[in-house]
Recover the amino acids of this structure.
């Protein structure tokens, strides 16, 4: 799970050099695949991986697309629909906040025409579903899917929860997500495989700006998964 990629490391931003090294490593050691294949087969293939981006920042056109084209890597981009053409207002209270621009509708439409890019929903308002009523949750999910499909003229089958921890699921149950027409949903719960996960509560490996290539390799290879243990403790507390 990535957010932003740019020349330099920064707020929610992995450097382009690190991103390329990380993706080359994954490609060498795992079966990197598109979202449709991942969701269909991840519960039977522990060596399968897919690459996701939350928030649809402008870096996707400038920094990411050239790299994934060169390496022939598929990615999925989760779009917060009400913020298209705007910026990451929900981060403004972070102490190291940096304004990051989000792709425009024209840019998202152009991005979606690439065969190695899948567009998914990140809701409308980038708000925790834990703060919403059942009606609000349904409205966020349904509207975001419908608007993306109308603009892109293709099915939008995947969703990623804003913030994505247990407290952020709220009324957006697997049953509601399935009823609206999503095939799977992603959290920010930290785990290296989804073999035993509900398809509407899939986990991811968050890549932080400060992660070196050595850190990255450690997260994916070491037998004792300390980030997973930390996540499990967090789940018990919350």
């Amino acid at each position: 799970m990535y957010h932003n990629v740019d020349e330099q490391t920064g707020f929610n931003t992995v450097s382009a050099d690190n991103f390329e090294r990380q993706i080359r490593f994954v490609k060498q050691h795992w079966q990197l695949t598109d979202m449709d294949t991942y969701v269909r087969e991840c519960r039977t293939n522990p060596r399968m991986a897919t690459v996701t981006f939350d928030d649809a920042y402008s870096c996707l056109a400038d920094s990411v697309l050239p790299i994934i084209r060169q390496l022939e890597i598929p990615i999925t981009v989760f779009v917060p629909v009400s913020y298209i053409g705007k910026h990451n207002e929900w981060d403004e209270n972070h102490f190291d906040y940096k304004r990051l621009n989000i792709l425009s509708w024209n840019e998202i439409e152009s991005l979606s025409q690439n065969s190695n890019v899948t567009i998914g929903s990140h809701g409308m308002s980038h708000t925790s579903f834990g703060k919403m009523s059942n009606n609000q949750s349904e409205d966020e999910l349904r509207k975001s899917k419908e608007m993306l499909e109308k603009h892109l003229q293709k099915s939008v089958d995947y969703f990623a929860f804003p913030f994505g921890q247990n407290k952020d699921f709220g009324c957006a149950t697997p049953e509601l997500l399935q009823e609206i027409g999503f095939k799977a949903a992603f959290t920010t719960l930290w785990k290296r495989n989804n073999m035993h996960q509900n398809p509407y509560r899939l986990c991811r490996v968050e890549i932080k700006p400060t992660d070196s290539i050595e850190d990255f390799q450690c997260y994916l290879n070491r037998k004792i998964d300390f980030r997973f243990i930390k996540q499990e403790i967090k789940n018990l507390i919350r």
About this structure: The radius of gyration is 17 Å. The longest helix spans residues 134-152.
